[in-house]
Amino acid sequence: MPQNITNKDCIGEVKKREKIYDAECSGLYVSLSPTAPPTFSLKYTCRITKQRATQWLGIYQKGGEGSPARDVAYWRREAMKLKIRIGNGEDIAQAARQAHDRQAKQQLTVGQLIDQRIAWISEEIEVRRHTEDGVIIKRKPRMKDWSNMASHLNRFVRPRLGSMVAREVTNDDIAQLQADILAGTLIIRKGKAAKKGSVSSARHMRKAVSGLFNWAAEAGRKYVSTSPCVNLPPLPQEEPRKRKLSPDEIRILWHGLDRPDMPIDRRICLALKFALASMLRSVEMLHIHRDELGRDGLASKLPLVVIPEERVKKGREIHQPLSDLAVEIAKEAMGNYPWLFAGRFGTEPLNRKAMACALRGKTKLVKGKVVIQSEGICRMLGLKPFTPHDLRRTAASLMGNIKVPRSIISLCLDHTIKSDEHGDVSPITGKHYDQDPRIAEKREALQLLADEIRRIVAEPVQAQEEMKRAA
Known about the structure:
Elements: H1 7-11, E1 18-21, E2 28-33, E3 36-45, E4 52-59, H2 72-87, H3 92-106, H4 110-122, E5 124-131, E6 134-141, H5 146-161, H6 171-183, E7 187-189, E8 192-193, H7 199-216, H8 247-257, H9 266-278, H10 282-286, E9 304-307, E10 318-321, H11 324-334, H12 354-360, E11 362-366, E12 369-374, H13 377-381, H14 388-401, H15 406-413, E13 419-420, E14 423-424, H16 427-433, H17 439-458, H18 464-470
Helix pairs in contact: 4-5, 5-7, 6-7, 8-17, 9-11, 9-14, 15-17
């Protein structure tokens, strides 16, 4: 027969595990153990699911200074309150789970939120694509450039805000983080601070943290009530890059890359030439596989490379014709490797940053002084610093100089055409209706570019010493 639970049962010596059910409040029992404090629970039948369940209540606690008593009478009252709620048709187990989830969300830190965000954007999902051959299903990450987003969150946001509770972050915290990035005082890892005055770093941080908190505030998550990324100070105006190589610089670069004493890997040198001749972005051209060159490859009468959408900035396939100059460079670079620009061991393509690193070299800060560890191509050849992307700008400028229409230049650069010689063009037309890749027009323009590059490099180098002194 059940008997009433007493305080003496809870404070007495326990030699073996046992349960004592309460006679006054049916379903209430206390679990006694030699190694654990007395624990109260309630057995009940859920009126919704019609199943027996157990609800954990709490631990027996004597009253003391500053702490209330949690004795038998207290837990009996709590059990009676729960039984009233159960009688009213409430699912107390579900309510407890929801309360636990709410409390967990309220205590979630920014670092934990970043981990969940990175796991979500990097998750592979099935995507349907409509093509000329019908609908195809691909598996791809939820966000194409998730690795860059993860890098920005880990480098700029986690060091400063990672330990803060996500719900307590304010726009003042984001504004201070932005100010510290611009001032170069944010420590992104041990011994290294953010680049001083880098507006692009601050812009990347703003985009990453705004996406993080907007995602966290979506219905179904509600990790935060609202995003704190509002009413932030405007970023300084970023000046667009205008660096392009002059004909003399193109001549010096082209011949310098062929020098027998050039210490940079030959395939990187050829990649720089190919970037100028093909007008492709670094990641688009460096990871070209033999399968992307078509059935006849570089031996085709009309050579063409098809860059898959996964490597393209706009997320669409690029059909880029190759001029005879580009084919000549590609044949030397590819050899018998499966990649157009193979890495050190030939099993993987060159790293997407290989050209940029080769151009600028490697420096190290020692006791406040910049020490050159390895000379870059720009310093070796006496050229003013430039990036691989500047070669695209140089190629586009060369095309404009030989009277190629800007609409065709945009096609070769894989830019959206907003206007042509007849006036403005609706963006919907190019995105959904006009699906012709304009290969013939691009092939003609890229061949004109190749002829212009050949003409430039065939002329004698002028004023090379003056350029070295200026650099």
